[in-house]
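User: Fold this, then the next.

Assistant: Folding the first:
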Amino acid sequence: NMDSTLHYIHNDSDLSTNSSFSPEEERKSKVQDVVPQALLDQYLSMTDPSRAQTVDTEIAKHCAYSLPGVALTLGRQNWHCLKDTYETLASDMQWKVRRTLAFSIHELAVILGDQLTAGDLVPVFNGFLKDLDEVRIGVLKHLHDFLKLLHLDKRREYLYQLQEFLVTDNSRNWRFRAELAEQLILLLDLYSARDIYDYLRPIAFSLCADKVSSVRWISYKLVGEMVKKLYMASTSTFVTDLMNELVEKFCRCRKWSGRQTFVFICQVKCLFVHLFL
């Protein structure tokens, strides 16, 4: 019943969490009235390690893939039925299971709302940030989609961690850095002019000097959008300082590649107009 499902999804009342349950209380905590209980119990049992040995070695991955759909059906009021299963999957030994959750954590955040996301998903998200590159790429591709759902104070905490995306397990993984540049363009709308200048600017300049041309081209667009954002801000000192740094770092660079970078940046966003304002 879609109406009843939407009723549960948009119900803002979040259930309080209990620290410990007896086995009987644990069973009752997973009781709901949206779908047949036997069907839900069957789904929750997919994380049982014995089933991976006797039924399907990738059954946990299938469980992780389906979890956002199950959460959407049950609604946020019944998130307590899935919370333990989600945490079990998030710490699964197989990186493919964690990767699956990383790619869908932003969708789950939309379903659960602000309070449950901050309490139950943010710790999992933080763990994925320190995981293998195969898992980190999942949260990186939807970094903007997830951070925009957080409150401003919590969102600003991740400014200190963006620099870590420049470091990968394999230095040849240039697509990781290209995705970072794409996400930074989107993140410009979520942060203040000072945050952009203090935290995003150094990362953008580092990406502009990347060894791979595909990463550099996206970074030129990033710098252009950054200048536009700072120019539109009420505080004009940031854009002036940024323009001066562009001139010193690239326009007057001794290497031809640095001077070429300056030309490309101007070409992307016609920055020469702002230079002479």
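Now the next one, as you asked:
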Amino acid sequence: EPTVRTELMEQIPPIAIFLQESQPTFPAAFFEYLMPIVVRYLTDVNNQVRKAGQEALLILLEQDLVAQSDIENKVCPILLDLSAPDSDDEYKVEAVNIICKMASMLSRTTVEHMLLPRFCELCSDGKLFQVRKICAANFGDICNAVGQEATERLLIPKFFELCCDSVWGMRKACAECFMAVSYTTSPEVRRSQLSPLFISLISDTCRWVRQAAFQSLGPFISTFANPSSAGLYIREDGTLSIRPSAQDVSSSSCQPSSNSTVMSPSAGAA
């Protein structure tokens, strides 16, 4: 029964946490018995079971409970199969979604060598606009996961394609994550490539795209600032923040010295 398999998936993460805390007693139980079930349920015929399996996998990755070898040898191959060009549409949409969500939880080497080539292919998927939409919405996270070199060499050309997509929702998603993409690139790429691209979005024929671009204008401009003089920096969670100057801190000892968040790169016209 699908409901039984779904319930089982919901119990996997707490069981895995228990096993991790009791490793002397159960040294390999999770890797031998539970992880294969999670992987198998990613391809279950029932979509609710698959969704539960995907959620369980993300929790396990968040808690750092999955071994690197399992990620590379079991999880990634399944996701690559599900996101292949000839894969079922529903499976492909789910696979690209899970790839984007898990990218920030994996090592840069794993993402760049195993998932990035497929992500670039999916950005140009001419069959399903839903696939391209997921890629566009998560583009900044992928850039952050692989770093500047891979972003400029492989991802920026794909970003140009998505910013010129015939579906306005794609262009709007690109406008919303523009700051995150810009922050990952060099100043020269920002000036010579991304600035003209942003102008095209802010002049788009669709008002929803223009609105999203105008809302991202300030955050995009902030990526040109020198962090040491402007006090702007990106926190680990991807939010743009202001670091108080030493003078401000010393002159207002009664004020809290915590940083103030200005804008999240993924925040759009919600």
